[in-house]
Amino acid sequence: MSEEKTPSNKQESSQEKTPEKSNEITTQPGVVSKWLSKQGFEHTVLEEDHIGTEIIGVANVRLLEIVQALKAFGFNYLQCQGGYDEGPGKNLVSFYHLIAMEDLIKSDYLNNKESQLREVRLKVFLPRDGDLRVPSLYKLFRGSDWQERETYDMYGISFDDHPHPKRLLMPEDWKGWPLRKDYVQPDFYEMQDAY
């Protein structure tokens, strides 16, 4: 009995002959990912952004220890912390963009166009219906104060051990998280007497 070739078998055999024509994108670990692996930190290598910034996925329970290690490795400036919603029924994401400022100053980055800025972006993916808690980075980076409060205010992601865990932009009694893609805007909001 002869084996019949199905279209999937033909496709597999052609991919074996010419692997350079494969549409599959393979993400290679960058410098920071390799360093984290050597240090024994579990993480996920994600595709770089459009300008080549390395992006790494981390578990919420490992965020603080990984950021502490990266700060010791030279990433001593939290440029940005924020959040976003991947879409209804999908994950909420808390992200952190870290820069090695001492390297930036030593290399005279602004005047030397050939110098390389060391930067990395961490992402914590949180299931929408799960526990939306991550550790606060306030003890490591004081600048994360208002950024984490804004992320809480707009997406409902809570930051453990944050010194001021309350809304930043919306009134304290506001219901819901306005930047979530499944948010339903209320017909009206009745202001309470503040005095």
Task: Characterize the structure shown.
The chain has a domain at about 25-160: Beta Polymerase, domain 2 (2-Layer Sandwich). The chain is built from 5 helices and 7 strands. It has helices spanning about 5-15, 30-40, 65-70, 100-105, 145-155; strands at about 45, 55, 75-85, 90-100, 120-125, 135, 160. It is globular. About 20% of the residues are buried. Residues about 1-25 have low confidence and may be disordered.
Topology:
Elements: H1 7-17, H2 31-39, E1 44-46, E2 54-57, H3 63-72, E3 77-85, E4 92-99, H4 101-106, E5 119-126, E6 133-135, H5 144-155, E7 158-160
Parallel strand pairs: 2-5, 6-7
Antiparallel strand pairs: 1-2, 3-4, 4-5
Strand order of the largest sheet: 1-2-5-4-3
Question: Structural class of the helices, strands and pairings?
Answer: alpha/beta
Strand tally, please? Answer: 7
Number of H- or I-type helical stretches: 5
CATH topology of the domain at 27-160: Beta Polymerase, domain 2
Mean pLDDT: 84
Molecular shape: globular
Order of helices and strands: HHEEHEEHEEHE
The CATH class assignment of the domain at 27-160 is Alpha Beta
- Please summarize the sheet with the most strands: 5 strands, mixed
The helix fraction, in percent, is 10-25%
Strand percentage lies at 15-25%
How many angstroms does the end-to-end distance come to?
88 Å
